[in-house]
């Protein structure tokens, strides 16, 4: 007897919402009732809606075809007129080709394909309508899979970076010789970070982790005099922590500092800029999407290498290890990044 293991209640309810025939709706309700009530037999579910046990056997066997066929071909007694039941081979090839382009190419205002968008494309382009389950199957067969997209951050073009570097060279030539140039950045380190390493061929490596997401936060600076400064933060990065860093940098390097930084909101906040206006501090914001211009990023890269693959019991242990590692990093040349 058919068990409907491959047909979920959600699938049946979706189809029920789309059918336009009372008899088909009644039959679907019998199937939904059977799926939702434990220990209820198909014959009993059929009887609740006035159907016989022999009918139940045929109907539930027929419903299993929903895993592979459009619902119109299964739930109605006769083929539906007016709308084609399925895609032709040529239409199928066109659908697959569309799926491998952006939905925007097909006229949809969306960055990526989803089942509802693909269904809308089928309706508008071919006047064909499938249940969500069948559309997912078609998308899978077309070579698409459900996955989380990696974030793609704004990337500054080379011309913008070159223009910034030219402007920074001029600014550097114009500032007082007493100014110290500093590049600042931020990082977050969790108790366990796995990075790539070398392992024997043919083995499946594993390393211990804590399973905790607790972290320490660090603000850091690299100077044009080949010095570094790092400030641990208890709270999340915000305008207050930025101001605290700038104040600490003045204490460490003198009142006149030219600070190169990215466009994070806690760096560009009005409070930060208002604070700088009342001091000799010069703020130079990098072009958006240009981490490769910031020498402080090299400090974090070396820190990741030092802490990677090492589980820490407590945040204090992690903080001590991070500050020890930062004391021994190879300090990058600021000008090799900012104005090569």
TrEMBL record:
It holds the Pfam family DDE_3. Residues 193-319 form the Tc1-like transposase DDE domain. Signal peptide: none annotated. It comes from the Archaea. SUPFAM superfamilies: Homeodomain-like, Ribonuclease H-like. InterPro entries: Homeodomain-like_sf (IPR009057), RNaseH-like_sf (IPR012337), RNaseH_sf (IPR036397), Tc1-like_DDE_dom (IPR038717), Transpos_IS630-like (IPR047655), Winged_HTH_dom (IPR025959). This is IS630 family transposase. It comes from Saliphagus infecundisoli.
């Amino acid at each position: 007897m058919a068990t409907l293991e491959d047909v979920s209640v959600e699938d049946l309810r979706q189809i029920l919402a789309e059918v336009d025939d009372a008899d088909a709706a009644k039959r679907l309700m019998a199937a939904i009732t059977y799926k939702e009530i434990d220990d209820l037999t198909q014959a009993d579910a059929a009887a609740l809606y006035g159907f016989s046990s022999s009918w139940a056997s045929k109907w539930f066997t027929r419903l299993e075809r929903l895993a592979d066929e459009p619902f119109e071909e299964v739930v109605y007694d006769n083929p539906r007129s007016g709308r084609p039941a399925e895609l032709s081979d040529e239409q199928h090839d066109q659908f697959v080709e569309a799926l491998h382009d952006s939905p925007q190419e097909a006229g949809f205002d969306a960055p990526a394909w989803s089942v509802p968008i693909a269904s809308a494309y089928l309706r508008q382009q071919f006047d064909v309508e499938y249940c969500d389950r069948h559309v997912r199957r078609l998308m899978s067969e077309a070579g698409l899979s459900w996955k989380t997209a990696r974030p793609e951050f704004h990337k500054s073009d080379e011309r913008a970076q070159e223009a910034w570097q030219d402007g920074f060279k001029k600014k550097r030539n114009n500032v007082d010789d007493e100014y110290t140039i500093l590049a600042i950045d931020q990082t977050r380190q969790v108790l366990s970070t796995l990075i790539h390493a070398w392992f024997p061929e043919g083995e499946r490596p594993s390393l211990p982790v804590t399973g905790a997401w607790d972290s320490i936060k660090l603000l850091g600076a690299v100077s044009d005099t080949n010095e570094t400064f790092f400030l641990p933060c208890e709270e999340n990065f915000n305008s207050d922590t930025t101001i605290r860093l700038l104040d600490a940098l003045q204490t460490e390097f003198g009142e006149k500092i030219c600070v190169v930084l990215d466009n994070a909101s806690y760096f560009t906040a009005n409070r930060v800029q208002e604070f700088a206006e009342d001091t000799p501090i010069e703020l130079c914001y990098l072009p958006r999407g240009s981490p490769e211009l910031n020498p402080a990023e090299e400090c974090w890269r070396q820190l990741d290498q030092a802490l990677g693959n090492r589980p820490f019991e407590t945040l204090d242990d992690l903080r001590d290890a991070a500050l020890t590692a930062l004391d021994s990093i190879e300090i990058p040349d600021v000008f090799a990044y900012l104005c090569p």
